[in-house]
Each structure stands twice: as structure tokens, then as C-alpha cells.
Give the backbone structure.
Amino acid sequence: MLDNITLYWLTDTAASSARLYWQNYGASGLTTLDLPVGPSVFPHELVRSPKIWAERAYSDLVYFNDRIPLGGHFAAFEQPLLFTQEVRKFARLVK
């Protein structure tokens, strides 16, 4: 985590990396996609999206897992093994 923060600090890119959050402030949060999607909802995520939201937003919902034991908003950094397992589970289902 400190490596990530240092990278943003030294390259002066923290503001540009937060642009996505600023632009979507106040948005409904539902985005529709017509491609294979496989959300993994980690227990300490900022917003824990229920499966019904995913079913409404994604016409090709291939994989959904909200029973992951650890991790949060930065799951790839906090729990790299669990994150990798989730990506692989989804990828196996996409043809």
C-alpha cells in the first residue's frame, strides 16, 4: 500500500487518479454493460453491491461472488491471492 501511495506522491498523479471519483460523484452507480462481467464483492468494499444490482446492470453476468472472506476497496493489493483466484474463476467461465 505504501508503494502505491509513494508512486502517486512522487509522480504527482494522485489528483488525476481521483478524477474518476469526482466525475461520478452523485451518479446512480448503475452502469449497463453488454459484455461478460464477473463482479467479486469483497467484504470491506466501500459499497457492497448486491447481486440484484448486477443482474439489472449487466446483461451478460457470467460470475458473481459476494462470499469472499477478506479484502476491501484495494483488494488486489490487500489480498492478491484471493483477487487472483477470483479473476481466474471468472476467466474460466468466459468463452
User: Anything to note?
Assistant: DSSP finds six helices and no strands in the chain. The mean pLDDT is 88. Residues 29-93 form one domain.
